[in-house]
Amino acid sequence: MIPYGKQWIDEDDISEVLKVLQSDWLTTGPCVTAFEKSVAEYVGASHAVAVSSGTAALHALMNALDIKENDEVIVPPITFAATANAVVYCGGTPVFADVESDTLLLDPAKVEQVVTDRTKAIIGVDFAGQPCDYEPLKKLATECDAVLLSDACHAIGGRYKGRDVGTLAHATVFSFHPVKHITTGEGGMIVTDDENVAHRMRVFRNHGITTDFKQREEKGHWYYEIEKLGYNYRLTDIQCALGISQLKKIDAFLDRRRKIASRYDAAFSNNPVISPLTVRKDVLHAYHLYVVKIEFDLLSIDRETLFKMMRDEGIGVNVHYIPVHYHPFYRQNFNTGKGLCPVAEKAYEQIISLPIFPQMTNDDVQTVIESLDRIVHHHRKHR
Ligand SMILES: *Cc1c(COP(=O)(O)O)cnc(C)c1O
Fold it and tell me: What span, in angstroms and rounded, lies between the C-alpha atoms of 163 and 126?
């Protein structure tokens, strides 16, 4: 089976992890700071806070921005549910704004329609690795006195109008899950230029412990204080060593992903049934996913059948994503459901994610192309 995504761990990664295992610091040691520093430098942000997952990163950010009951946070429906879940963790209400049909990125015009005086933040999601349209989103956020945030779990290494992902919003979240660009097993990071937000997230990831060194000196070395509730969302030194080693290879990983994507682009360019998502001219795509829309009206099979046929041929296709507002949790607690975001809902019926990961060979890519082409060709409706 050719999976839809897969990590690439080499001997260098393994030896860096082994060094930490043999050291005095398994967690909260020097590798954490070093990893934060290298990610901050890579994306060009002033502060980076490492946490135990991308989801923890979103939660820490919502907490640092004081999202609470009666607050609304605008999110797109085409994302991993964690984007919206993080709002709910803090008692806030995720408000779904529809996406653009050609890119599946948050549509600024739809955002404008759902803004209220309770809107506290807008989370842009760089779906598939393409930065969303930050300029109009930023303008809207400023107008309604909300914060623009970026869930860039798909898009580290991407660029928008010449600027790096990680500098496009007030704060940006990354994930280091194995299917993402670089991995720490599980892991996440928030980057921001806002020192206060960074500080709050550091406290939050460590139980809410605030007492600084000076206070401890005065009151005894055992002394600490918890002012606000926090969690244990720390990332270990073992994981950070892996992250540092992986980050050294990210440009090669990105380059390979882009090359695979251009092979797919070329293969499907004249196919009336298979349409890759549109890539805007002013972005550099990071290609976490390669998503195509299938014109099932022209076929005698549906998505489920196509999906199963490709899986049977050993192609690990996937669907990203079930619109978040379709999930029973959201239907039951936030009164969402079909009809709320028609563009996302229609796209959901048509999308399929093809395998893409740096170690994928050109032969693998060709196998995927031929499988999809053949199935589509054999099931064209008679005209
Ligand atoms: C992967 C992902 C997350 C969550 O990251 P984890 O590290 O798996 O917790 C959040 N948002 C998006 C868009 C993601 O792809």
Answer: 14
* Dihedral-angle region of residue 174 (phi above 0 means left; psi in -120 to 50 means alpha; beta otherwise): beta
Which one is predicted more confidently, 220 or 328? 328
Report the nearest atom of ligand 1 relative to the CA of 175: 7
Mean pLDDT, residues 311-335: 98
Length of the chain counted residue by residue: 383
Q: Mean pLDDT in the chain?
A: 97
pLDDT digits (tens, 9 = 90+) for 180-208: 999 999 999 999 999 999 999 999 999 99
Residue minimizing CA distance to atom 15 of ligand 1: 153
Q: What torsion, rounded to 10 degrees, do the Cα atoms 69, 73, 77, 83 define?
A: -80
- Pairing relationship of beta strands 119-125 and 72-75 according to DSSP bridges: parallel
Q: In one letter, which amino acid is 95?
A: V
Measure 75 CA to ligand 1 centroid, in angstroms.
14
Closest-lying ligand 1 atom to the alpha carbon of residue 127: 13
Residues noted as catalytic: 180
Q: Ligand 1 centre and the CA of 324: distance in Å? A: 13
| Helices 54-64 and 195-204: angle between axes, nearest 10 degrees | 120
Two structure tokens written together for 352: 């399929």
> Would you say the pTM of this structure is higher than 0.85?
yes
